[in-house]
Amino acid sequence: MRYGLEQYDHHGFLKAPIWLWLGWLFLAKAWVVFVVAGASRQSGSDILAVVYADHRFLYLGLALGLPSLILMWLINLRKPDRLKLNRFVAMGRTITLFSIAAQWIQISYQVVLTHGAFHWSNALTLVILSWFAMYVYRSRTVADSLRTPKFA
Fold first, then answer.
1. Which of 3, 51, 130, 147 could form a disulfide with 7 if both were Cys (CB 3.0 to 4.6 A apart)?
2. CA angle 31, 136, 12 (to 5 degrees)
3. 98 to each of 8, 54, 133, 145, how far by Cα in Å?
4. What residue intervals traverse the membrane (predicted)?
């Protein structure tokens, strides 16, 4: 037995590792900024202007973060009798890798727009995205947690 019993939920599915949750949250960072800006009524537009100077990147970030939000929501709704939902969550690894690639391309485009000027936020984002891509691609725990188990 590869995993302990406490790592399974009450339906028999392997729980997603904490690093996968944190990575999905990082992919949905535009949603986090959007919610924080909405929660602070007076300074909400100022927060959005500081983090996303161009509103097109905010909208693109919202669109690119949506798959990870959907996966975070659906992974907790898995049950043995929900076959379509289980199949969609089983594709979560591929969906996550495509989302990482799209965000990597977006940040690379922002670097091109600044003519290669160094910014810590872009550099850290690219490094974190690269690490998360390697983790999702190589981790057996991620693959097993998204896989639908065979029920007897």
1. 3
2. 90
3. 27, 24, 9, 18
4. 12-37, 57-76, 88-105, 117-137
